[in-house]
Amino acid sequence: MPYGSIACSHCGTRLTYGTQSSGRTLTCVVCGKFMPVRGMLDGITMCVECQQKHQQQLAQEKYIEERRRQAHVNDIIARHPELKTKIMNRIGPVNPVGPFVVEGGAYEDILSWNDNLTHAKNLELAGRNEDAARVYESLGMWKEAGKARKEAGSTTIKHVSVNLNDLLDKLREGGFAVPYKCRICGAVMTIDKNSKAESLTRCAYCGTATNTDALLGIIQEALK
């Protein structure tokens, strides 16, 4: 092995040949400690002292990372309390008053849940309730998915009612009567001056929800 070709992988210092009572060895010039022959056979390129320092450094880095993950998870729970039970179940039993460890796989899952839930809430803010409901379902948040869909349905009915009321007013002004057929039972109904927007959202015979887009199209066509 060439002189000075081996460096301590912890401190980076070149290990030089020295002499010990046991014979020729490699010595770290930083701490002056020698490299055990056993260590060389095991593939360890650190002196004894640097090995200890390296282990301490790794332990400290691990501790810092564990505390960082814990703080981040606590922050996610504070912003999305509805995720707390799901997160705690994923982490496993923890000390409720002390630090807890979040393993790598669990941490990645929690980050994904946080991103998805944030996205779902943003979709609701944008009025895309059905899209939000699908994201909630992917998270197993069935109550939130149902609430989003209920809001989506309410918004749609309100929007359709407004459009129908506008068109019905025009029908009344023109004295029109427009027939249309239920897409399920085939019953024929008539839209006239006495029709109410609320009653047109479902078939008066079988109760099937009306294809509101098609209904609006029929009325608009009659008004041309």
Your description of this structure?
With 224 residues, this protein is mostly helical. It has a domain at 127-222. Helices cover 54% and strands 10% of the residues. It has seven helices and five strands, in the order E-E-E-H-H-H-H-H-H-E-E-H. The chain has helices spanning 37-41, 48-79, 84-91, 104-125, 129-138, 142-174, 212-222; strands spanning 15-20, 23-28, 34-35, 178-181, 188-191. Strands 1-2-3 form a three-stranded antiparallel sheet. The protein has a two-stranded antiparallel ribbon with strand order 4-5. The longest helix has 33 residues, at 142-174. Mean pLDDT is 74; it is low at 18-24, 37-42 and 155-162.
Largest sheet: 3 strands, antiparallel
Number of strands: 5
Tell me the fraction of residues in β-strands, as a range. Answer: 5-15%
Question: Helical segment tally?
Answer: 7
Mean pLDDT: 74
**Uncertain residue segments:** 18-24, 37-42, 155-162
Distance between the termini: 96 Å
Overall geometry: rod-shaped
Chain-wise SSE layout:
Elements: E1 15-20, E2 23-28, E3 34-35, H1 37-41, H2 48-79, H3 84-91, H4 104-125, H5 129-138, H6 142-174, E4 178-181, E5 188-191, H7 212-222
Antiparallel strand pairs: 1-2, 2-3, 4-5
Helix pairs in contact: 4-5, 5-6, 6-7
